[in-house]
Amino acid sequence: MLEVQDITMRFGGLTAVGGASLKVVPGRIVGLIGPNGAGKTTLFAIIAGFLTPTAGRVVLEGTDITGRPAHERAKLGIARTFQIVQPFAGLNVRENIAVGAYLRHAGAAEAHARAEAVARRLGLGGDLDKPASSLTVAGRKRLELARALATEPRLLLLDEVLAGLNPSEIRDIVPVIRAIRDEGITILMIEHVMQAVMNLCDEVYVLAQGEMIAEGTPREVCVDPKVIEAYLGRGAAERLKAEGARP
C-alpha cells in the first residue's frame, strides 16, 4: 500500500532523516520505533504531506504522491494523529469529530451522523455533547483517533497514541486499535510502549539518528544488537524476549 523510498529531510545543515525506506502491506499494523529525536515524526509528516522531503519518494498504491499536499493525501485515504493532542477547545466532542467527517460528507447532518457513529465506536458516545476541553488525557487520545477515523481513511498514521496513558488505559485502547485494523484500515504507528508494539505489530522498523537500522517482526527486532544498543538497552530487550507477545 505504502512505499517510502530513500527519504532524506534536511533543515539547513541538519539532516533529520537520511535515506530512510519502509513498506506497509495492506491489512497490517506496522510499527516505527526508535529513540527520541530519531526523525520518526518528521518521517510521518513527510508521508502525510505536511513536509516535502529534500530527496526520495512517497508512493501510495503505485502512485508517486511526494509532491501532493496534505489535503489531497487525505482525500486519497491517508489520515494521521498527532503526538501532542490539541482538540478544538471551543467545540464539543461531536463537533470536533465532525471536522474530520466533512472531508467526505458535505452536509452538516451527514457529518454529524458520521461523527456520532465514530464516537460510539471509540467509546465516546456518552461524551458527544461535552466540551472537548473537559476530556481526560485518555479521552482526548480517543478524540484525536476519532477525528482521524471520521475522514474514512484506508491508511492510518498513529503518532504515539498511547503516550501519557496509564497501564489500564493502554489495555483498554489496544483492542480498539486491533479492531480498526480488522475493519480493513491499514495502520503505521509510532510507539514507545514496547509491550504494545510486541502485541499489536506484524512488522517493525527502527529509526535511529535519521537512519533505518533494522526491520523485521517484533521478536526479531528486540534481539537485534543494533536496536539494543541504539534504543532498547539490554535489560529491556531481555525482558521483552522473556515475556513474549501476549494475545
From TrEMBL:
Gene3D superfamilies: P-loop containing nucleotide triphosphate hydrolases. The gene is lptB. This is ABC transporter ATP-binding protein. The keyword Metal-binding does not apply. SMART domains: AAA. It comes from the Bacteria. Keywords: ATP-binding, Nucleotide-binding, Plasmid, Transport. One of its GO terms (cellular component) is plasma membrane. One of its GO terms (molecular function) is ATP hydrolysis activity. The keyword Transferase does not apply. Pfam families: ABC_tran, BCA_ABC_TP_C.
